[in-house]
Design goal:
Strand order of the largest sheet: 7-6-5-3-4-8-9-19
Largest sheet: 8 strands, mixed
Structural class: alpha/beta
Helix content: 25-40%
Distance between the termini: 41 Å
CATH superfamily of the largest domain: ANL, N-terminal domain
Length: 659
């Protein structure tokens, strides 16, 4: 029943594909801003009518080049209006846009180009063109590489290359000569057509191409719009990778369905400034972005005067006490309400302004678990931060947190139209109109992912609490047991460690072992600032990570986490007994993290087996030499003698009585 309701909701008024929605907005709100882009320091605005005209030109240009229904087109680059338009143009022709991560090295791109049998690629700039030309011999099907930004391209003469400007000129001529062509192609589109192909992060093997339909993403977009009462007046900053399902849901699907405005920053370096200028009403970021923002705030506060620090900490204590209750409309004493009002005037308001979050009505985070303390911080200063839960295979749409029903340790209730069931082994199963159509050319994987009842098997372990809220423990495959039988959930421990601004990444080990040990990556910005204020010189990451003072700092963080774990009966036995600070940052370019910064556990366990053996072998230090890959493709080696430290563990706290 819920499947049909969701599908029908997406088909109201015949708006069952994204091109139909686009043309609808161009008719009913032609002059409303659809997109803005910061270029050369100035915001350029494009109305819905202008977007529709540009999409027509790109689509007709592609058709002129021989692009056919069902063809795949790679889209590679930062968030740029013309790349989003290229996605829509491809959909108008019944093609399948294949989103690729812009920071992927050339060799990573070969796999996707070959697997998806890409004939056309639309890329952002010279950097991406160079990658495509490098791998051209390995991608024989690639016939056309079209670039958006012409800077640096003057002397490129390869026949496969064409500028997007030139393509649009060709398309406008085609549209004039065959004015009914594109409307006819849009009319052929159906809700069940594949609208996008997004590749999984590949934590356990080769990435798979997830084929999602127009109907699936429209159902997810409409459900979320209804849930949070979004309107066409929202502003969103689109800065997360276009190849990530979260960006596609928020910056393409929801914007196209609701008709609100997408804002593209000038560059990755200017995101914070651009965020402040736009002041979005609707915001989405993975936990690491919220962690980084909080780290920056704390660094700035440590450099502030003693008076400002005292005022900040006083009012943050007030916020922790009553801020979230005020946000949720719960009763708060008059004294606390006055203190909070004063805090808003002196601290929270200016802080939100600095963060660019003054106008936010709804903010979401997803992609990884967020620490309760981090979550509580943002809500306490009046930012309506909520969690959502979903995967690439579910259009990032499974659970949403309702206003005034926020639980810090849950990901919310099933989203409209979604059914959730927990299997006997604890795995979360979901069903609804947002499920993938298939994995591209992988019927075996498609069959394995959906059970006989039509439920998608998420691979996550969790449970539904007494209020129907879903709580995630960890990836089902990652949940293990210590030798004493205690449950070992590495992600849970890692997220507790990463709450500290000094810890950027953590990897916990413990399955089938008698204790938990961990690798730590320090945050070079936060720890560097800490070291400089103490007059501690260092020559770079490896040098800083090895300093005894830094080890002591991290040990205090680890032991604080252990003290917290001791009070949670489910995980009290999984306190971190031993740890080391890695000599290099874990890096997607070295295959240690996925492009969405998820840990590749199996790979790390093999690559650093000598360190794991040293942790569990009782050693106090271990030499290691590691190969690293630089941004320009060159490789080198980093070697170090790593210190291994024992951390204090705490006795399990007595269980609270049921009464």
């Amino acid at each position: 029943m819920s499947d049909n309701q969701g599908r029908n909701a997406g088909q109201e008024g015949g708006l069952d594909t994204f091109p139909r929605y686009l043309m609808h907005h161009a008719q009913v709100r032609p002059q409303r801003p659809a997109m803005r882009e910061k270029k050369y320091g100035i915001w350029q605005t494009y109305s819905w009518a202008q977007v529709a005209e540009n999409v027509r030109a790109i689509a007709c240009g592609l058709a002129q080049l021989g692009f056919k229904r069902g063809d795949r087109i790679a889209i590679v680059g930062d968030n740029r209006p013309r790349l989003y338009w290229s996605v829509a143009a491809c959909q108008c022709l019944g093609g399948i846009p294949v989103m690729m991560y812009q920071d992927a090295v050339a060799q990573e791109m070969i796999y996707v180009l070959q697997d998806a049998e890409i004939k056309f690629a639309i890329v952002e700039d010279q950097e991406q063109v160079d990658k495509m030309l490098e791998i051209l011999p390995d991608a024989p099907m690639l016939e056309h590489v079209i670039y958006d930004d012409a800077r640096g391209m003057r002397h490129y003469t390869q026949p496969v290359l064409m500028g997007l400007d030139e393509l649009q000129v060709m398309g406008r001529i085609h549209d004039r000569n065959q004015s009914d062509f594109l409307d006819g192609e849009i009319a052929k589109g159906a809700s069940d057509d594949i609208s996008i192909m997004l590749y999984t992060s590949g934590t356990t093997g080769k990435p798979k191409g997830v084929c999602q339909t127009h109907g699936a993403f429209i159902a997810a977009a409409r459900g979320a719009i209804q849930f949070d009462k979004l309107t066409d007046k929202e502003d969103i900053l689109s800065y997360l990778p276009m190849a990530w399902v979260g960006d596609h849901l928020f910056s393409f699907a929801q914007a196209t369905v609701a008709g609100f405005t997408i804002n593209c920053p000038e560059s990755g370096e200017t995101v914070m400034n651009d965020l402040r200028e736009i002041g979005p009403t609707y915001y989405f970021a993975p936990p690491r972005v919220f962690e980084n923002l909080l780290t920056q705030v704390m660094i700035r506060m440590e450099d502030a005067s003693a008076l400002k620090r005292r005022m900040f900490h006083h009012f943050m204590d007030v916020a922790r006490r009553c801020g979230a209750d005020i946000l949720d409309g719960k009763p708060v004493s008059g004294g606390d309400r006055f203190q909070y009002w004063l805090g808003n005037l002196l601290v929270y308001g200016p802080l939100k302004n600095v963060l660019g979050m003054s106008r936010i009505r709804v903010a979401y985070t997803a992609g990884a678990a967020i620490g309760p303390d981090l979550f509580r911080f943002y809500r306490s200063i009046g930012i309506n931060l909520k969690q959502l839960y979903g995967q690439t295979e579910t259009c990032a749409y499974v659970c949403l947190q309702p206003d005034r029903q926020i639980k810090l340790d849950s990901v919310g209730l099933p989203a409209p139209g979604v059914e959730i069931k927990v299997a006997e082994n604890g795995e979360i199963l979901v069903k609804g109109p947002m499920l993938l159509k298939e994995y591209y050319r992988r019927p075996d994987a498609t069959a394995e992912s959906i059970n006989a009842e039509g439920y998608f098997m998420t691979g996550d372990a969790g449970f539904l609490d007494e209020d129907g809220h879903l709580k995630i423990i960890d990836r089902a495959k990652d949940v293990g047991k210590l030798t004493n039988g205690a449950m070992f959930a590495p992600n849970y421990i890692e997220n507790k460690l990463k709450f500290f601004s000094y810890i950027k990444e953590a990897v916990a080990f413990g399955h089938d072992r008698d204790m938990v040990c961990a690798f730590i990556n320090i945050d070079i910005g936060a720890v560097g600032n800490w070291a400089e204020r103490r007059g501690l010189p260092y020559a770079g990451y490896t040098d800083l990570a090895a300093k005894p003072e830094v080890y002591q700092l991290i040990q205090e963080c680890v032991e604080q986490v252990n003290a917290e774990l001791a009070h949670d009966t489910m995980v009290a036995d999984t306190q971190v007994h031993r740890f080391l600070i890695l000599h290099k940052e874990l890096d997607p370019d070295d295959d240690e993290l996925t492009r969405t910064r998820k840990v590749r556990r199996g790979f790390i366990s093999e690559k650093y087996a000598v360190l794991i053996d040293a942790l569990y072998g009782g050693k106090s230090s271990q030499f290691i030499e590691t190969q690293v890959r630089f941004e320009d493709g060159r490789t080198g080696k980093v070697a170090a003698d790593l210190v291994i430290r024992d951390a204090r563990v705490f006795p399990r706290a007595a269980a609270k009585s049921a009464a």
